[in-house]
Amino acid sequence: MTSTTAERSSFLRSKFAGLPRPFWALWGGTLVNRLGTMVMPFTGVYLTQSRGLSVTAAGLVMGVFGAGSLLSQLLAGVLTDRIGRRATLAGGMLATAATMLALGYSTSLPSIVASMFVLGLVLDIYRPASNALVADLVSPEERPRAYGLLFWGINLGYAVGMTAGGRLAGLGFVWLFWIDALTSVVFAVLVWRAVPETRPPARESAGGFGVVLRDRVMVGFTLVTLAQALVYSQTMSMLPVAMTNVVGLSTGQFGLAMALNGVLIVVVQPLVSGRLGRLDPSRTFALGVAVMALGFAMTAFVHDTFGLAATVAVWTVGEVIQAGIAGTIVAALAPPELRGRYSGLFGFAWSLAAVLAPLLGGPLLAIGMGPLWFTIGGVGMVSAAGMLLLGPAIRRR
Asked: What GO molecular function annotations does the UniProt record carry, in alphabetical order (predicted)?
């Protein structure tokens, strides 16, 4: 074995070795599921082009999906703690598969609306269960690396799924629904066969969401997460609108610049996750959010594709810095028997941000690029400052 080969082997072991086999089954299932995530990025196109809905009607239907997603994380948190992590994850994936096919073959507006609401309810049920499984399976010292690898797998799969989905959509949207459904079933089967149930015995004194809401540190972290999520959610709400309608970029130019986000995460994140995981979580998280906020604030000065790519590179660096840290913090704050509920409250912050982001960003963009992106950058800096204030309490846990 040459020295170069030995060094490469040592590097791979340092990044991927030492985690339990069930974690890798969970990671593999997540990757497969993200490879098949083709429907949601093209839902607006499907509703308007394939089902003939107006832009306004499509927006209302997407709002119904958002309403379902708001309930999803709280419901999933309860189910994760009551019926178990494995059952919740596998059941959520099977329900997602069935709902994907129902939506794909829905032709009337009532059936589309009903399918979209149920899809919002079940699509991300797996998240609290997945987060709780990692916390149960992996030692506290290895959790930052484990959550970081999960984040990396999600982005790797999503990047490939987006590319393939764009091509398959040209052959017919029904292909997207079938592939999404099949990969959901594969995820469910893999978890059911290869991941043990890790839910600790329920305690009568465990309580419900009231216990979580009385945890001031967790509530504070949820508010910090909400502010951070409001910043990041602009990538799916106002950023495409601002770049195409105001700056005048084509969809191809916008997609090219945004592809840099996935490339940087896939290439850079495995290289730095181990070192970042050894740092103080609250300070690392605050640094990542601050860099992300700076990148979004810089968007106010974007005039071309190169400028957009530069801002994407900056906020992606922030995203990489804090990747996996949030899951580590939630796992540290949550008692084992309430990890599902704690993860559910964390996920609720992201669902709420997805609903609030266009409501905040739309009126600001109507005023101008500066008001929108400087405000979004300010929200991110408030999130970073809040994280620093929570740091001592999190370290005491």
From this structure: transmembrane transporter activity
221 plus 296 within the same structural domain: yes
As a whole number of angstroms, the distance between CA 396 and CA 55 comes to 50
Do 122 and 29 belong together in one domain?
yes
pLDDT digits (tens, 9 = 90+) for 267-314: 998 888 778 878 899 999 999 999 999 999 999 999 999 999 999 999
In a domain, 348, yes or no: yes
DSSP string over 70-139: HHHHHHHHHHHHHT-HHHHHHHHHHHHHHHHHHHHT--SHHHHHHHHHHHHHHTTTHHHHHHHHHHHHS-
Please give the residue range of the domain that contains residue 41.
19-195
Per-residue pLDDT reduced to its tens digit, 178-203 = 999 999 999 999 999 999 999 987 66
Cα–Cα distance for residue pair 182/103, rounded to 1 Å = 14
DSSP string, 220-277: HHHHHHHHHHHHHGGGTTHHHHIIIIII---HHHHHHHHHHHHHHHHHHHHHHHHHHH
Contact 43, 100 (CB under 8 A): no
Residue 93 belongs to domain with CATH number: 1.20.1250.20
pLDDT (tens digit, 9 = 90+) per residue, 215-262? 999 999 999 999 999 999 998 888 988 898 899 988 778 878 888 888
- At position 272, the amino acid (one-letter code) is V
Contact 161, 35 (CB under 8 A): yes
The pTM score is 0.86
287 and 157 in a single domain? The answer is: no
In a domain, 5, yes or no: no
Terminal-residue alpha carbon distance, the chain: 45
Judge whether 1 lies within some domain: no
123 Cβ partners below 8 Å, 6+ apart?
Answer: 40, 69, 72, 96, 99
- Helix, strand, or coil (residue 380): helix
